[in-house]
């Protein structure tokens, strides 16, 4: 192990595995280590079911009614992929899609006054939706047409809106949209977790709604995709990509010390040996003294024998509870998948509730979501601290990821990956450049 590497990566969370793959494709010599014996770190999929019981200190074995333990792959951190989002682009460009199979999530729902409603995904659905009254539907339709046509480089499409100055609150006012419509547009289409966006320039929100619409247009039922056998397949896919380009992987490797000289990382010590490096990527758990706590997330994994009520018996869905509806500052999310995705025994469903903690009684905070799921056969509750790096890596050349947030999609994770990439290389992450590199190299790999 006494070798020199361009980059050493610690931890096999999705962020670390994607960066490891990208750096390998760029021709860097990469060593990737994890103290765990499995891929995924805190974003792993746990199998068999017995391991989930042990992890959450639930006494006894799972009941026989849960089927075979090996039939289960339960995500610790639930997230879906936006069909037209950044992670799908990364998967397509790097061809990691060849290692994975995806299913479309069957529906996206929003909570209003104690009930759930399908988020209208087409003009026809919008006109039929009981989320809005007749006149509101017409105004909402006009708003969607405005968003679809909006082009920041073409003033003719802007209808007097300045993308860098007009706030989103003013745009909603322009179309005379009511609070309930603003709630589901901002939280179920633009996927904001709080209402802070209302007083910011509108361009980001317009682009987010476009992303939702374009993702939806690809498959029709919802804008979300999910990999068969669980999210643990994603880091493994990028690990394979890294290996194709010469990346070296070592699981079950205790990390004894991160070796520094003159304030700069020079290597990692494991089992008495030092592997040297120029740059280090890691998750916060490897260097807690260079992080700051930025909050907490509660997640409740629920095993059920039935689909969620009022979802047309969907095998998979997302429900967003906008914060205004339950007098909170942050939204509550419900992700549900099932045996149809090879993550549960036949006839079983896994729903995961998550939100940002605001009080000293987190379980009470998710009560509105838990009531939608009843009856629940078994639940597993975790409250995780969230960390962000205090060291941005300019001097130390240590580049740390952020802890996964409560959102149920990977867009924030991809923003973190692009931010780390820029700090490491000094250049913006360029999808087109990755595409070119992949085309240059994949031909050679395919011939091998």
Automatic annotation (TrEMBL):
Record GO biological process: protein transport; small GTPase-mediated signal transduction; vesicle-mediated transport
Keyword Acetylation: yes
PANTHER family: RAB GDP DISSOCIATION INHIBITOR BETA (PTHR11787:SF1), RAB GDP-DISSOCIATION INHIBITOR (PTHR11787)
Membrane topology per record: Peripheral membrane protein
Chain's role: Regulates the GDP/GTP exchange reaction of most RAB proteins by inhibiting the dissociation of GDP from them, and the subsequent binding of GTP. GDP-dissociation inhibitor preventing the GDP to GTP exchange of most Rab proteins. By keeping these small GTPases in their inactive GDP-bound form regulates intracellular membrane trafficking. Negatively regulates protein transport to the cilium and ciliogenesis through the inhibition of RAB8A.
Similarity field: Belongs to the Rab GDI family.
InterPro entries cross-referenced by the UniProt entry: FAD/NAD-bd_sf (IPR036188), GDP_dissociation_inhibitor (IPR018203), RabGDI (IPR000806)
Name the UniProt record assigns to this protein: Rab GDP dissociation inhibitor
Gene3D superfamilies from the UniProt entry: FAD/NAD(P)-binding domain, Guanine Nucleotide Dissociation Inhibitor, domain 1, Guanine Nucleotide Dissociation Inhibitor, domain 2
Pfam families reported for this sequence: GDI (PF00996)
Keyword Transmembrane: no
Naturally occurring in which organism (per UniProt): Esox lucius
Annotated GO MF terms: GTPase activator activity; Rab GDP-dissociation inhibitor activity
Subcellular location: Cytoplasm; Golgi apparatus, trans-Golgi network; Membrane
Leader sequence segment: none
GO cellular component: Golgi apparatus; membrane
Phylogenetic placement of the source organism: Eukaryota, Metazoa, Chordata, Craniata, Vertebrata
Keyword line: Acetylation, Cytoplasm, Golgi apparatus, GTPase activation, Membrane, Phosphoprotein
Subunit-level organization: Interacts with RHOH. Interacts with the GDP-bound inactive forms of RAB3A, RAB3B, RAB3C, RAB5A, RAB5B, RAB5C, RAB8A, RAB8B, RAB10, RAB12, RAB35, and RAB43; binds RAB3D to a lesser extent. Interacts with DZIP1; this interaction negatively regulates the interaction of GDI2 with GDP-bound RAB8A.
């Amino acid at each position: 192990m006494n070798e020199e590497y361009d980059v050493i990566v610690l931890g096999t969370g999705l962020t670390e595995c994607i960066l490891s793959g990208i750096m390998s494709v760029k021709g860097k010599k990469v060593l990737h280590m994890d103290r765990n014996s499995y891929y995924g770190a805190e974003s792993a999929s746990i199998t068999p079911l017995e391991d989930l019981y042990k992890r959450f200190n639930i006494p006894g074995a799972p009941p026989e009614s849960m089927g075979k333990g090996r039939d289960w792959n339960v995500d610790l951190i639930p997230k879906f992929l936006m069909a037209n989002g950044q992670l799908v682009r990364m998967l397509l460009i790097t061809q990691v899609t060849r290692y994975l199979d995806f299913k479309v999530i069957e529906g996206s729902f929003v909570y209003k006054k104690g009930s759930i409603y399908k988020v209208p995904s087409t003009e026809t659905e919008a006109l039929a939706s009981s989320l809005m009254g007749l006149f509101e539907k017409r105004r909402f339709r006009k708003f969607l047409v405005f968003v679809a046509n909006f082009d920041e480089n073409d003033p003719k499409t802007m209808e007097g809106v300045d993308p860098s100055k007009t706030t989103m609150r003013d745009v909603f006012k322009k179309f005379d949209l009511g609070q309930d419509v603003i709630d589901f547009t901002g939280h179920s289409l633009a996927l904001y977790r709080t209402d802070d966006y209302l007083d910011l320039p509108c361009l980001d929100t317009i682009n987010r709604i476009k992303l939702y619409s374009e993702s939806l247009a690809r498959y029709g039922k919802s804008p979300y995709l999910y990999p068969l056998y669980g999210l643990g397949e994603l880091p493994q896919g990028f690990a394979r990509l890294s290996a194709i380009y010469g990346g070296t992987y070592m699981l079950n490797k205790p990390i004894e010390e991160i070796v520094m000289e003159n304030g700069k990382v020079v290597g990692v010590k494991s089992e008495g040996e030092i592997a040297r490096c120029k740059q280090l990527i890691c998750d916060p758990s490897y260097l807690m003294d260079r992080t700051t706590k930025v909050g907490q997330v509660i997640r409740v994994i629920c095993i059920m024998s039935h689909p969620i009520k009022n979802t047309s018996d969907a095998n998979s869905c997302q429900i967003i509870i906008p914060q205004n509806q339950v007098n909170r500052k942050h939204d509550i999310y419900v992700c549900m998948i099932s045996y149809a995705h090879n993550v549960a025994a036949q006839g079983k469903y896994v729903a995961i509730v998550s939100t940002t903690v605001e009080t000293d009684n987190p379980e009470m905070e998710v009560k509105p979501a838990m009531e939608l799921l009843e009856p629940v056969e078994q639940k597993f509750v975790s409250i995780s601290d969230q960390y962000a790096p205090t060291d941005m890596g300019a001097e130390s050349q240590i580049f740390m990821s952020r802890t996964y947030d409560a959102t149920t999609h990977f867009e924030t994770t991809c923003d973190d990956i692009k931010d780390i990439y820029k700090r490491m290389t000094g250049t913006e992450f360029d999808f087109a450049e990755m595409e070119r590199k992949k085309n240059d190299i994949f031909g050679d790999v395919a011939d091998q």
